[in-house]
UniProtKB/TrEMBL annotation:
Pfam families: Peptidase_S10. Residues 1-19 form the signal peptide. It comes from Algoriphagus ornithinivorans. It comes from the Bacteria. Keywords: Carboxypeptidase, Glycoprotein, Hydrolase, Protease, Signal. GO terms for biological process: proteolysis. The keyword Plastid does not apply. This is Carboxypeptidase C (Cathepsin A). The keyword DNA damage does not apply.
Amino acid sequence: MRKIYLSLALMLCYSLTMAQETRKLPVETSVEKTHEVTIKGKRVPYKSTAGTQPVWDDNGEPIASLFYTYYERTDITNKASRPLVISFNGGPGSASIWMHLAYTGPVLLNIDDEGYPVQPYGTRSNPHSILDVADIVYVDPVNTGYSRILNSETPRSTFFGINSDIKYLADWVNTFVTRQNRWASPKYLIGESYGTTRVAGLVSQLQNAHWMYFNGVILVSPTDMGIDRGGPVKMANYLPYYAATAWYHGQLPADLQSKDLDEILPEVEKYTIEKVLPAMVKGGSLSAQERDAIATQMSRYSGLSKEVILDHNLMVPTSFFWKELLRDEGMTVGRLDSRYKGFDRMEAGDRYDFDPALTSWNHAFAPAFNIYARNVLGFKSDLTYNLFGPVHPWDRSNENTGYDLGQAMRQNPYLHVMVQSGYFDGGTDFFNAKYSLWHIDPNGKMSDRLSFKGYRSGHMMYLRAEDLATSNEDIRQFIQKSMVAPNMPAKYK
């Protein structure tokens, strides 16, 4: 009997040991698979590599390991002329899953044409992927996805902050590009949301500390990237987004509602710059007559009553807008995509209980990636794939990434930047994205290398089928435009 108990105990210890091993991320590993996808009607064979690559400390010891998924087209042998796109999402603390499974990669999660989840969960081929024109690597920063800290004694500040995030990721990218023999390739960074802060800083860090130069940076739903704005500028800039959302929900006066969005927005943007901003700057010195006139016009453009605009001294917070716009219908609108509607426990209040857009998305992505990683990529782990990981406290001090991006462009005549924004995104609104572009290039000398693309959707504009096709094509055209002819010197004329 003692032998039986001993055997059972040994088996239990072995099982626990194996479980513990599978719950640890390997410092370095990779799994390769071959696939094919049809993009724009043409067959594209490709290889996937799902793996981990370490982050080292100054002594060369691994302190963390990052999970990545790398897609390479296999019927092209000349990697020197083949673009490489390095993709990050945001948060901070968000995995790369969003653009990976819903935007530029070779597969898409199952959603309907407007981006709403459907069952059964899973993925399908992406006929709009940019894999036909570029290889792509999706990177999960520390504590997102499967990426983890390996050395528990390493200070969290090594990873969790604007500038520390940029520093260790630049080292990681340098290693990846070297290992994959891609130094000669035209290179691009793409980031979404906080990922735009990340890639704006990365392109500068890689250029100035690793001497790695890029052809392009794509900013999807950009943050302010440390570009100064506040008070009247911050509050005035929301009006065009309010107008777009009110138009979508049919809340504008009949004469405006009958117009197309493309007709309305230039009018509202002009009014914002020429009238609303100066009025807000005047504050209490604004006459009652002027204040009433501005509030009346803001009401026409925003779908809010003149009274609530006056109650807020013209400066209506976004949180109030999401609650107020459809209050008479008992509904709220989403922050990250204001096409989405929800409802709260009480109709009273000045902010909603939850973002109906984000809650809709979360339950579609997690099952799809877990199925895809194990069954298609062949990467098996008992770790939780963190859509949103623990990355706090996050050091937000010394934020200069937008200005650093402008400096990198001035230093590198090859470098182009494109912004992609959804008109119904209330988290990182499109007019503030335009404002950032203006101040990345304050003297206007780089306008031929800066571009803006707007879409009739929200923060993740690619979730809408029509915009998925258009936005991927915009990236494809951006890459082609920013490719450099052989032997073309990097100099200003």
